[in-house]
Amino acid sequence: MSQSKTRVAVAAAVALVLVATAAVVGHLSTRSPEASPIAKLALGAKEFQPGAQGGSAGDESREAFKAQEQFDNARLAPGGVVKAGAYGEAFENLSTLHDAGGTWSELTKLPYDADDPDYRDYYSNSSGGSGLVTGRITGLAADDAGNVYAAGAVGGVWRSTQGGGNWSPIADSLPTLSSGDLELNDDGSLWYATGEANTGGTSYVGSGVYRLASPKDSSFTPNDRVGGDELESTTINSLRFANGQVWAATLRGIWSHPLDNYSAPWTLRFAPSPTYMPAIPAIGLEAGADSGAQNAAYKNIVNDLVVDPNNSNHLLAAIGWRSGASYNGFYESTDGGVHWTKINPQGGLDATDIGYANFAYSSAGKKLYVMNQSPRKINSLGAIPNTYLDGVYVSNTGSLTGPWNRIASSEKLGSTASGSALYANYGLGYSPGIQAWYNQFITVDPANANHVYVGLEEVYETTNGGTTWKTVGPYWNFYFSCWRPDALVDPNGKVGCPQTTHSDQHTATIGTVNGTNVLYVGNDGGVYRRPVIGEVNANGNATDWKSLNDGSIDALQFYYVGVGKLNSDDASRPDLETGDSVLVSGGLQDNGGSLLRPGAAKMVSNFGGDGGDVLVDPNDGCNIVQEYIYLSMSVTQTCANPGPDRPNAFLDLSQSTTFKIGPPDINAQFIAPFTANETNIKQWLAGGNSLWYQSKGFDIRSGSEWGKPVYTLAKPSQTFTAVAYSGNKALATWCGPCSNSTSAIFDRGLVVGTFTGEPATGTWKWEAIDLTNSPVPNRFLQGAAIDPNNGDHMFVVANGFSRRFSEGPGAGIGHVFESRDGGHTWSDASANFPDVPANDILALKSGALVVATDLGVVYRAPAATTWERLGGTTLPVTVAMDLTQGPDGNVYVATHGRGIWRITLPAAATTTTTSTPSKKK
């Protein structure tokens, strides 16, 4: 545990968000039925890693919904709408802050190996086949000369001039790095639509559209924005070009902009529910009569827009909210976007069940394909459906009316005939398309109208118009007969399974590299490439995928970071190589837990699944606790490397050096908080609906060793959001109900604890603090900290925006609040703090404060009352989620889009955390 470290229940997410009604998440721990005999029995026990509260595959299918709900609540409660201009003003405020000094250095811009053979402890995903990975990629564009551009979800735009690899960031000077779409126009210009448009939990709004005239040799600047602020604070699904206009499909309708005057404003061309539109002063648009409704953000969602290759006046749009709304459907314009008509599709496609959908024309326009997600399945009661996919359809006439014929269903894509890795899960709530509301793409080979690629959780290919499908990019290789625990594949593909892609596909494009047409796909693990006309094995899986995530593209989406020293045993291990004197661990969205010795040649993944909170022994960096979800905690004292004396640890739980230790809580946050005492690393607190305490430190081996909870909130619907623990004092914040649906039901609060006695036998006394008349706002309290010099000096930070930008009574103004009497009274310490969601706060022994926000890191010097920008502009403008001070004295920040960075503070700060090194087992 590092000095003055607070553990926060992360709200990783949105400036403008949409609340789901049902959904599912990425990484399962299960295998498909074609297991080799050696794996079949051994891997059976690894099926699904449910949280500490127990569960099954059905429970796993609710995870993405729970994640998004938590992230939405943090930024929107107690209201439900963030007004346009909030992030723009916050960025301006941040930019005017004084530079506190120091320079941020990036630690994770190096290969991240998800398949490192040294890290095949029981809960690792190593040998799954993803290879080198990075964070979620939501936009791709490529030309015929090997130039390819990739957009990270919150990582900005990256350029490669060699068909992938050796990437360079080219959008870091922009006020947002949230990415919706990338498109190359015929004149060679690159267009960047900001604001990630999928409705997952960690999607952020953007600041509009930018155009780069010469993308091969230049970078975006704020001056490259097209139009004004008309498209600020929204998300953009797609950009298209027709009739001298660029068209944008956004969360707030369809817009266009002339290509001959980039400074002109954008024009709103169509909004299906205009009374729900917000005010947009730049074009004189007044707020609609229903713009203040809680569900206003759901009413004008345009998911895709395409142009008829044979008639540029003929535009098609897929419009609708994934959970269903009266305006959902297919729309077309035959007069260049002046008028729009809702179409009643004929044939096998049900017009009353159109949700999130994407189109793809064949190059000649004679065939039109669509992939459609089913609102009816999302809204189904009772058992969770196996999939939310309605199907993939073709209109063989190219007409939007159809008739439409279904050419793929979840059952067809997930069959043994296709080679899907998800076949075994059918009937368990996780089958192809279970995340069709979140990740999907569809694209047609320009040279063959019957050659279609579809991306869901896996990548599928048909060469005969949908008669048969092959899973060319399976979810992973586990349980295929070719899988081996000791080998992924040799260079000739003779041993083990071939490399696949990472799961959860979001975007695809086709380009040319050295004369070969290639398919690029972007997913939750980065960018992968294969020839358009590629090779497959007998199972239908591609044998020619290449990971393009060589480490130069650092789009990693961290939730948390923890830092510890290398002791003498650790430092001598060959797997830790050379480098700095510390080990850095992190938890990532859909990319497990990471381990890095700064200066080493690569970073490795030592825990599978989704990574969450992280706790590291500051005196021994191989003592690690990694969260999966819902306080599902695992501990290792070997860095999760079982070593050569445990060769079967990956298959045999009894040989594993990783142990499940989560307490049996009933209502923990998706990413729930836990922490160690700043002055005794063996004393831990974890927060769900209850607070749990244990004093065995990293020697704990099971969840039962937490014993009984030391404090339980008054209602089961209440849950802790942040926990701080220093000396004999603890501070924990909570919300409950945490919903942002109506301001009337949202509530929040905090409790303060005092510990008396010896660590193993002492007792806690807790006091619930009444915040009724305090300046602490009725918003989501995201972070907490205790002054390491004075246990009665406490801090909390509030997420969301002030009531200037968010609806709901009691939203409050400030973001940072301070108590000097053990939490009984509070004062607003915000001063010139930017009005932007705050995610974490770090109280240093020097008296300084460091706060992580959605736009970076701010700093308050010892004895100061105003805030500065830490490190100036040396940290990209991305979401700073978590802060920790390492045993080396440096401050580390986990960003949710640009990896982990560190900085030497302007004033030196010492650490006081102590640890009795635990015996490794």
List low-confidence stretches: 1-62, 908-921
- Sheet of most strands: 5 strands, antiparallel
Q: If strands are numbered along the chain, what order do they take across the biggest sheet?
A: 1-44-45-46-47
* Helix proportion range: under 10%
**Count of all domains:** 2
Radius of gyration: 26 Å
Span from first to last CA? Answer: 20 Å
Task: For this entry, give a set of tags.
single chain; 921 residues; Methylamine Dehydrogenase, Chain H; globular
Describe the structure.
Strands 1-44-45-46-47 form a 5-stranded antiparallel beta sheet, with no helix packed on it. A 5-stranded mixed beta sheet has the order 3-35-34-33-32, with no helix packed on it. Strands 2-58-57-56 form a 4-stranded antiparallel beta sheet, with no helix packed on it. With 921 residues, it is mostly beta strands. A hairpin with a 7-residue loop joins strand 48 and strand 49. The chain is built from 7 helices and 58 strands. The radius of gyration is 26 Å and the shape is globular. It folds into 2 domains: 427 residues, YVTN repeat-like/Quinoprotein amine dehydrogenase (Methylamine Dehydrogenase, Chain H), CATH 2.130.10; 413 residues, Methylamine Dehydrogenase, Chain H, CATH 2.130.10.
